[in-house]
Design a protein that fits this description.
Layout (H helix, E strand, L loop, with lengths): L15 E7 L6 H14 L3 E2 L14 E6 L4 H11 L5 E6 L3 H6 L3 E3 L35
Antiparallel strand pairs: 1-3, 1-4, 2-3, 4-5
The structure holds zinc ion (ZN).
Amino acid sequence: MTETPAAPRRIAEIASYHAHIYYDVATTKAEAEILRRQIAERFSVRVGNWHDEQVGPHRQSMYQIAFATSVFATLVPWLMLNRRGLSILVHPNTDRPRDDHLIQPLWLGPSLPIRGEVLGETLDEDELPENLPPNTVPQIDDV
Ligand code: ZN
């Protein structure tokens, strides 16, 4: 008898995505500033705050770009071509935060360590992934 494989996960589980853009305060923050401005000019996304200090599972300075699933097909290829040498973690937001960061993500550029132990295996009821409205209005239409 053969075991029935587990059903594949459905992409509808993905509520949204994050791109975490890593930089070094001493050497690459200027590149990260240029990239941040270029993203905000072109994409309807939520640009997060600067985190020069390590925060959450991240072991290097970074800022977060939160975006809707509909933006993935343009933003991610654009980042592939324009990441300015920076490492970028693109991860889905499902109800399994640890897997989202450790098993399912894409890395653009060299991957960096992630502290998976600080992430929950499942989401608590009160922290379901939110569908964030964008806080930038793109001004440039040359994606
Ligand atoms: Zn994230």
